[in-house]
Amino acid sequence: MSWSILGHDWVITLLKNHIRSGNTRHAYLFSGIPGIGKRTLAIQFSQALNCLEPPEVGEFCGKCRNCRRIANLQHPDFIIGQSEEPGAILKIEPVREIQKTLSLSPYEAPWRIALLLRFDEANANAQNALLKTLEEPADQVKLLLTASSDSAVLPTIASRCEIIRMRPSDIVTTSRLLQKKLSLTEDDALRLAHLSAGRIGSAIQFNDMPETVEAILRHAQEGLEMFASNTRQRFQYAVTYRDFRKRGELRALLLEWQALFRDLMLLKADPDARNSLTYIDLVDEMRSLSQKAEEHDFPALLQNTRRALDYLDANVSPQLVLENLLLTMPRIR
Questions:
Q1: 232 with 313, same domain?
Q2: Which of 99, 133, 165 is the last residue in one of the domains?
């Protein structure tokens, strides 16, 4: 076993060459939309750095003690830091604990590696705390960060990292990779390729978790129904997010609706659009609704959804965030 992440051959080649040349960087920042494979790539890079029996330089066996324990997130020289849940804030305390650990020599691996997931969710104090580690790197230490965008990380952090910008594959390429890897029919592979927006990692997860696909499609259907709902019904829907602990769930819903509103905007411009859609299962219903809307409705709604995500990140009540967004939705029946 070695590198198995699909659709990112250029990144794998780059990282292999860094290892082969003995010129790996002290810190790497893997950026890209959720589900594109940043976490998987960082873990496999860590295995390649610490493999005890690599088939060749830059590869990893996947079977030795180091490879297995890193894959299982149980290696003492492989530390992971992240916020409590997606959409939550990564505070300074976990970062300081990781810094203390990185100040020590590796226990048994060639490199001590810290992987900080979703570092764009770290607050300014947490990001600034990491700066000293980047400015004064210890020997035998590697720092790996993931973020939705390198612009979401402080420039003083990003400028000290090798930035790896990961982008989704096109729908046709993603579909072919899924057919080859998972032995899916063309229709099933295309459906997952569209729903994942070309993110191989997400598409594979969707195939393994059909209940997740059902939930996403249900949320999209609810979003369509909101257009025909009255104010009372919209407030009733928002009440389901009154618990502050549902911030993560609401963030996921807003991202799903963002894709829905984008589909509606594309269909408003071109009723025959299909190749760039996310929710191809709902194309007929979306096309019908889009043709009843005004030209400006969906661009404005996309902007309001982005603003709602910002409010959520600013710790505004989930219920209030959703109420505010729903009140900006045009009523279309």
A1: yes
A2: 165
